[in-house]
Amino acid sequence: MIRVLVAEDQAMVLGALAALLEIESDIQVVARAQDGREALLMVERDAPDVLLTDIEMPGLTGLDVAAEITRRGLPTRVVILTTFARSGYLRRALDAGAAGYLLKDSPSDELANAVRRVHAGGRAIDPTLAREAWTESDPLSSRERQVLRLAADGLASTAIAAELFLSDGTVRNYLSSAISKMGAANRIEAARVAREKGWL
Fold first, then answer.
1. Among 52, 77, 110, 199, fewest CB within 10 Å belongs to which?
2. Terminal CA-to-CA distance of the chain, rounded, Å?
3. Domain containing 56 — which CATH number?
């Protein structure tokens, strides 16, 4: 029996995913989480074989959870299930240690097969995105990404500096570098371009 934890912040989608998986005779949904922090706690507590998680969730993103599972050396394998058909997100998911990356509009039978493949030690990657993922690499450093994300949320440089324990000048340097790398005119445009490519 493959023990699965499903993490999704939309209750109806969470219920539907769990129901889809529980139809399978060899898959058992052992827990459900509605945010990233809860998912990580349940991974530690229940030690599921596979975590099926959305990317965008409150607290921690699915990518954050995958990275933390990898950092802690936990045996749970991660499958990202998302609406984001962007190669940048796939690259970040793989870098975080995810073994699977599927789109929510994939046929439902692919979901169970992906869980089985990942549980067996393989990978389950949307084939179209897999081809695209290696055509353009993410130019942002992790710190530039942090700063740009906070700027996109409307924080001023001084507020970003306080949030990240950096000097105001250092924040401006990171923003300037990110804007330049995105070929953008300002921080808002830079954040938009980075989001469209899945880098933010």
1. 110
2. 36
3. 3.40.50.2300
Closest CA to 7 of 86, 61, 84, 76: 61
Q: Is residue 137 part of a domain?
A: no
Domain residues for 158?
142-196
Domain-embedded: residue 101? yes
C-alpha to C-alpha distance for 36 and 84, rounded to whole angstroms: 17
Q: What is the pLDDT of residue 132?
A: 57
33-47, 60-74, 90-104: the lowest-pLDDT one: 90-104
Q: What pTM, to 2 d.p., does this model score?
A: 0.69
Q: In what order do the strands lie in the sheet with 50-53?
A: 27-33, 2-7, 50-53, 77-82, 100-103, 124-125
CA atoms within 13 A of residue 21's CA, in its CB half-sphere: 26
Among 95, 106, 107, 101, which residue's Cα sits nearest to residue 81? 101
Question: Residue 134: which H helix or E strand, with range?
Answer: none
Give the phi and the psi of residue 125 in degrees, each rounded to 5: -120, 135
Question: For residue 135, what pLDDT is reported?
Answer: 56
Cβ–Cβ under 8 Å, residues 27 and 4? yes
Rounded to 5 degrees, φ, ψ at 124 are -135, 100
Mind listing the pLDDT tens digit for each residue in 59-84? 899 999 999 999 999 999 999 998 87
Distance CA 130, CA 53 (A): 19
Question: What's 57's DSSP letter?
Answer: -
